[in-house]
Design goal:
This protein is of the alpha/beta class. The strands form two sheets. Strands 4-3-1-2-9-10 form a six-stranded parallel β-sheet, with helices on both faces. Strands 6-5-7-8 form a four-stranded parallel β-sheet. The protein is built from twelve helices and ten strands. The relative contact order is 0.20.
Length: 267
């Protein structure tokens, strides 16, 4: 018997997954969610594959104990490096943030030239390159690691001059001059989308994983008969591994909630 009325689990290294949660909250108003932010160990982008797998597996076990019906890995680094291992040991559906985005990117590009920005670990893994080439081996793919973006966002410096300088450093217009689609390969990056737009051609279509993943999840729930059967009042529970002032602030603004019920746990 499927537990349709159970919540959906979402996890990220920090607050980036809130971009996904925000979209899910709007597109699935009857569903409830448990959000897990591993704030004690962020950023994941600078850690080894083995460490990311270990943390991701521990978080999934925690979410399963909370009786979630589905897990969304709202972290591109974990989606790139841990998803294959997680799928072997997790006995409920698990969705990563990479697959929906590459499928959308291939449908969107007209020049068959796609750019990807992400954490160092995500870019080094070549997860996007490999999966894109499996679907279409005639693509021209340009990648760029942006390791400072996540710390900047987590520190609440999205509108600071240093952020503009770093965008200018990473988003070299010559390097990305041929692409017509840019994938934001980190769920934190939508928080920088307005600054990013100023440093790339206006002709480039930006793919925000948050919206694409939310639409994918909605279809997945419908196709697998996992939609909630009762129209209960939506609730969201938050679990963090360390205190984060920026998380509280952004979650309140993003999700339009005055007070967040946050519990702190140790992995």
């Amino acid at each position: 018997m499927k537990n349709n009325n159970h919540p959906i689990g979402i996890f990220d290294s920090g607050l980036g997954g809130l971009t996904v949660l925000r979209e899910l909250k709007m597109i699935l108003p009857n569903e409830s969610f448990i959000y897990f932010g591993d704030t004690a160990h962020l950023p994941y982008g600078a850690k080894s594959k083995e460490t990311i797998i270990k943390y991701s597996h521990q978080i999934c076990k925690f979410l399963i104990k909370k009786k979630v019906k589905l897990i969304i890995v709202a972290c591109n680094t974990a989606s790139a490096l841990a998803i294959e291992t997680l799928e072997k040991y997790i006995n409920i559906p698990i969705i990563n943030v990479i697959d929906p985005c590459i499928q959308h990117a291939i449908k969107t590009t007209k020049k068959k030239s796609i750019g990807i920005i992400g954490t160092q670990a995500t870019i080094n893994s070549k997860a996007y390159d490999i999966k894109l080439n499996r679907l279409n081996n005639d693509l021209d793919i340009t990648t760029q690691a942006c390791p400072l973006f996540v710390p900047i966002i987590e520190e609440g410096l999205t509108n600071h001059q240093i952020t503009k300088n770093i965008c200018e450093l990473y988003l070299n217009k010559q390097k990305f001059s041929e692409i017509d689609v840019l994938i934001l390969g980190c769920t934190h990056y939508p928080l920088l989308i307005e600054t990013i737009k100023k440093h790339i051609s206006k002709k480039i279509i930006i793919i925000d994983s948050a919206n694409i993943v939310a639409i994918f999840v909605k279809k997945f729930l419908y196709n697998n008969k996992l939609r909630i059967s009762n129209k209960n009042q939506q609730y969201i529970k938050y679990f963090l591994t360390d205190k984060s002032i920026q998380f509280n602030k952004l979650a309140s603004i993003f999700l339009k909630e005055d007070s967040l019920k946050i519990e702190f746990i140790k992995l």
